[in-house]
Each structure stands twice: as C-alpha cells, then as structure tokens.
Design a protein that fits this description.
- 16% of the residues lie in helices and 29% in strands.
- By secondary structure, the chain is an alpha/beta fold.
- Strand 10, helix 1 and strand 11 form a beta-alpha-beta unit.
Length: 241
C-alpha cells in the first residue's frame, strides 16, 4: 500500500517501507538497512537479505520480546540486537543492552533511549536521514481502576517523558505509539497528546490486540493538520512512504 491520499500530498516522500507485523512489531526498511521493532509473533519479510539488520526490543514483556529473535543470527550474517537492559540476555558482539536516557552509535545509526511509563525503554533511531520513534510501552495508561492520585501520577509521568523527547529537538518522521482498546473511553489520550506535542509526520497506532476497529476510532477522533495517522487493519500490512 502506498500512502498517497489526504495529508500525504503535503509530506516529503521518505523512501522507506514499513511493514506492520503484529501488535507492536514493525519492520522499517530504508535504503541501506532494516530495523525490526518489538517482534512478538508473526511473519517477518525482508526483501533485501544483504542489508544490515537491527533488532530492537523495548522491554521484556512477552508481547514485546520473543527470544526466538536471537536465533535469527543463524540466518542473517549482518544482524545486531539493541535490547532494553531488563531483558535477561548476555551482551556480546551482536547484542547491546540499553537503559533509559542513553545514547549509542553503531554503523551510522544514532540510537537514543527514552523512558517508559511501564517497563524498559522507548527508542529514537536516526538512520539514513530519518528519525524513527518506537514508544514500546510508553503511554498514558489511564486505567479506570486507578485511584485519583495514581491517575495524576501517571499523567505527570507520561507528559514529563514526552517533554524530554520533544526537547531532543529532532523532528520525528515516523512514530509507533500505543492505541490500546483496554483503556476503553480513554484509549485516545496518550496518542492525542503525543501527536499534539511531537507532531510526527507519520503516526502508526500499535498495541491494539488485533482489535483494529480501535485504530479507525482513533483516526476519526484525533484530527491533526501536520500528522498522517496510518490506518492499520491487518497483520503483514505494507506501507511505502
């Protein structure tokens, strides 16, 4: 699928292919590299197997990290893993562990980690002229079961972390961010605030637990003149930006 309707006419073409794998898992294929974020399950399609591959896992929750990814180095020679340090693996030449608010350079990639409102980190990756943000479980988790003070603390924690990302001064080209139906009437709060503050060119909703109608609801609820909210409606969906 090529995004060529609506606000896309006003956006620079990024020369990148994004594949939605499942849940919060995506591949991003640039001119020179392949980035894989938060693989949990599903099929991974890589068109050019000679490209360098970078696998990111934001934290150890089973819906964001599957240890099977470590077996991929049997099939790909040029693969490197950038994992949250809460994941129980040993560092070696192919594995880098990172905590929040760290910076790492590898093969022309600049990787900055930011915080989470749950576990682990979020990633900001600068690669091939693009700035790509994957939120992991960074979200405004507004659960109705929370007490009023818990709701206030969550809101403050989330907004502080978004401000730190904003203060990085980098324009975000592609953002992957949770839109979770379990939050019921509050499903839109985090994404709406994130878009208003960060203004990414493309916003990919994720973490929808296969309930893709919530993404359609989000698109209709959250209007933005500067961000294209991408309509994800099935696994293994391809987008050429």
């Amino acid at each position: 699928m090529t995004l060529d309707e609506g606000r896309d006419d006003d956006l620079d073409k990024l020369n990148v292919t994004v594949n939605y794998i499942a849940h919060s898992g995506f591949t991003v294929e640039t001119e020179n590299r392949v980035l894989i974020f938060d693989y949990f399950k599903g099929q991974v399609d890589i068109e050019d197997r000679d490209k360098d591959i970078y696998v990111f896992s934001s934290h150890g929750h089973r819906d964001h990290f599957n240890p099977i990814v470590l077996d991929w180095k049997k099939d790909f020679k040029n693969i490197h893993y950038i994992l949250s340090k809460d994941i129980d693996v040993e560092e070696d030449n192919s594995i880098t562990l990172m905590g929040p608010y760290k910076e790492y350079f590898i093969d022309g990639l600049r990787i900055k980690t930011f915080g989470s409102t749950d576990q682990g980190v979020s990633f900001l990756v600068s690669v091939d002229g693009l700035n790509i943000f994957h939120a992991g479980d960074l979200h405004w988790w507004y659960w109705e079961r929370y007490s009023e003070i818990e709701k206030i603390n969550m809101e403050n924690s989330f907004k502080i972390k978004v401000k730190r990302l904003k203060n990085s001064g980098l324009d975000i080209d592609i953002a992957f961010f949770p839109v979770d139906p379990r939050l019921e009437d509050n499903f839109h709060l985090g994404g709406e605030y994130f878009i208003s503050e960060i203004r990414p060119k493309y916003f990919f909703p994720m973490h929808s637990w296969d309930k893709y109608e919530i993404i359609d609801d989000f698109i209709h609820k959250v209007a933005s003149p500067y961000t294209k909210i991408v309509d994800i409606n099935h696994k293994n969906q391809n987008f050429k930006l």
